[in-house]
Design brief:
about 290 residues; mainly alpha; Rhomboid-like fold; two-stranded antiparallel sheet; two-stranded antiparallel ribbon; 6 strands; about 60% helix; transmembrane helix; hydrolase; Rhomboid-like_sf
């Protein structure tokens, strides 16, 4: 007669020792009871393995060169900026010079007023919004055409390399940098407008990115040189905005693409904060000169 061996008992759930189970996690092979089971494509997994897999999935998400998230539409922000500029341009066509005077970049100027005193307008009179609103303002079709062409050509590549949030920061800081240098150096009564400061910031950022990736710099430098020649030879162009945007865009982009991976985010935030602080201090000094 054959000798019979006793059947081994069921394993106990690794989380609930009072519960027997015949199911094991397909990832870690630990016994799990129905309360700990999470359905998987094959069998069941324990909750701890599921949480670990989710964390690893988040950590493994692809990132841009500057550390931003890779998105499906790498030109979404560029399209939004194009649309915003177009909407403001249509508003200018509808309202005429009134909107230009209300939103354009001007330092300190008299706008009519009464027989007793003029009505003062400008950044020096507390209208700080002009530093940014002027960057979305165009009055001539050729002006918005050139600026939006530059945005369309340069924007998607930079947005793809930096990520959406960083690209927005680059664009807005470049626009503010251009307006600030105009505020510092141009005639305080001069009214200026346009996205040229931001676009020149994109030129500078594209050159920095090309250098970071060891691409041929000659095409972008040639295009930049042509635009600088136009800036200083054509009348009616606020060269201060172009240079201010170019410098700020280059500095911000350098911090974004050259920062070491381990300290990338703190360096990027610090660089943007320092640029914003420099813009604020410069505007305060200029304001004190004009009305202090």
């Amino acid at each position: 007669m054959a000798q019979q061996h006793p059947q081994p008992g069921l394993a106990r759930c690794y989380q609930h020792q009072d519960r027997e189970t015949g199911v094991r996690c397909t990832r870690c092979d630990r016994p799990i009871c129905p309360a700990c089971m999470v359905p998987a494509s094959v069998g069941y997994q324990c909750r701890q393995c599921v949480r670990g897999a989710a964390g690893a999935s988040r950590a493994a998400r692809p990132r841009t060169l500057a550390g931003g998230r890779v998105t499906g539409d790498s030109g979404l922000v560029t399209k939004v900026l194009l649309a915003l500029n177009a909407v403001v341009f249509l508003a200018v066509l509808a309202r005429g010079d009134e909107l230009v005077v209300d939103l354009g970049m001007v330092g300190h100027a008299a706008d009519g007023g009464t027989i007793f005193a003029p009505h003062w307008i400008g950044v020096a009179d507390g209208e700080w919004y002009r530093l940014l609103t002027s960057a979305f303002l165009h009055q001539e079709i050729w002006h918005i055409g050139f600026n939006m062409l530059g945005l369309w050509l340069l924007g998607p590549q930079l947005e793809s390399a930096l990520g959406r949030v960083r690209f927005v920061a680059l664009y807005l800081l470049s626009a503010l940098g251009g307006s600030t240098l105009s505020y510092l150096l141009a005639d305080e009564r001069q009214l200026s407008l346009g996205a040229s400061g931001a676009i020149f910031g994109l030129f500078g950022a594209t050159a920095v990115l090309a250098r970071r990736l060891n691409y041929d710099l000659r095409p972008i430098l040639l295009l930049l040189a042509i635009n600088l020649v136009i800036t200083f030879t054509w009348s009616g162009i606020a060269w201060q905005a172009h240079i201010g945007g170019l410098v700020v865009g280059s500095v911000v982009a350098a911090a974004m693409v050259w920062a070491p991976r381990r300290t990338r985010l703190p360096i990027q935030i610090a660089a943007c904060a320092l640029v914003a602080l420099a813009i604020l201090v410069a505007c305060l000094v200029r304001t004190n000169q004009l009305v202090g």
